Amino acid sequence: MLSKVEFRKQQLPRLKSARQETEAAAAQLLYTLMTTPAWKNAQTIATTIAGPGELPTAPLIEAATQAGKTVLLPRVMPKHQLVFLPDPGPAARVTSSFGLSEPAFEAEKVEDTIDLIVVPGLAFASFGRVRVGFGGGYYDRFLAAHPAAATIALVPPVMQFALPTWEVEPFDVPLDQILFV
Q1: How far is CA 58 from the centre of its chain?
Q2: DSSP string computed for 52-88
Q3: pLDDT digit string, tens, across residues 127-181
Q4: Domain 4-180 has CATH 2.70.50.80
Q5: Among 17, 60, 162, 174, who pairs with 129 as Cys (CB 3.0-4.6 Å)?
Q6: Global pTM?
Q7: How far apart are CA 160 and CA 122, in angstroms?
Q8: DSSP secondary-structure letter at 135?
């Protein structure tokens, strides 16, 4: 069993080498997502702006917008906290100190009621519906504090694991659903 730090060191190069395969899986995963009750019933969808090696999220944002859903994006806050704000569109997003594209922080626009969160990560295991994120525990803290939100991960082949090969810790929040290609 690898520590999460060791696992990330092994997984990041794999993600980089599988970029084309990951991008190719995006359309099927989005289609599958849009057939789920969680998607159909959601009025607010939280997702991220994908970075290199991650599943592209621009088509997801476009589909949600076209379906009349409110799209929320994460904003990294001090003390490993995360808040979600409405997507202001590409031109109005700012780049965080982590190099992430985010909405500018406006306290009055923070959304605490989210119907569906599409959770990012580096790897996902079907057994236990657990994930390894990018480090810092931002999503686990948020999910633990907001258990009413449905959670789904869209997982391309390079991120799929039957069993976790990384250390699963007590504070890791299992997801409601993991969609594999």
Answers
A1: 13
A2: TTSPP-HHHHHHHHHTTPEEEEEEEETTTEEEEEE--
A3: 999 999 999 999 999 999 999 999 999 999 999 999 999 999 999 999 999 999 9
A4: no
A5: 174
A6: 0.97
A7: 9
A8: S
